[in-house]
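Entry 0007
Protein: protein acetyllysine N-acetyltransferase
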Amino acid sequence: MNNQEKLAQFAEYLKQVDGLLITAGAGMGVDSGLPDFRGDQGFWKAYPPLKYLGKSFVDMATPELFKTDPKLAWGFYGLRLNTYRAVEPHQGFHLLKQWSENLPNLTYGAFVFTSNVDGEFQKVGFKDEKVYECHGSIHWLQCLDNCTRDIWSADSYTPVVDEEYCQLTNEFPTCPHCGGLARPNILMFSDWKWQDQHQLPKEYQLEQWLFNVKNLAIIELGAGTAIPTVRKFAERLVSYPINESVSFLRINMREPQVPNNSNCDGVDMGALDALVELNKQLKLIDS
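Output (structure tokens):
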């Protein structure tokens, strides 16, 4: 089948299911204008100063950098925070929200599992308790030294960054308990101090939601193999189902391959294009 035929078939499934699981990786945000950090060259295209410093994404996404070079660390995360605050989620996010409310048999609604830290799903109206962010969120802060398990909103902090050098130029965010340096509440590389208590209740709710759903549809968007958390989660639900039926659609421009299972399909399309086409197929069923 070609992509259009696969999407038409999945649209039929969507009309029948009582639960929709949306799983998303970095590729989901590309159509909103966000970088996906694909390889060093992709990362350096988004953050040119880091190329001259010889810093990869792995080098930057580590708690140790906040100790050795906090201005650079907060320069990088400050740029990201400002970018994610300003981003307008693309139409595909809005379509997913519409389906979560309007699909005819969707008794249990939709749940989101994402490795993205940008908060785009919440921006289009998904309730925070229905968005499990397995790597945390840039919109929350925690103490770098773990003086407390508390986390707090980053809303009151506005980083000012010299983009030419990727350096923070205003004051650092600090821990309200000890006064020490704060960091984003994001799971980084070699990170043994990430505070996950904001996500744990959502993980539990997702597990309970999955047990309740009888006929499940999974739409996976922009989840690659470099950091395969999202892909493995969806594949596990397909390979070891706890539901009466599972239908799985993988949307990935470069890596659309799916498990060898009759209820799995992959389309080599971008997230926005695929979701717009899927919406067309849903409307054709109703016409």
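Curator remark: The longest strand covers residues 136-143. The radius of gyration is 20 Å.
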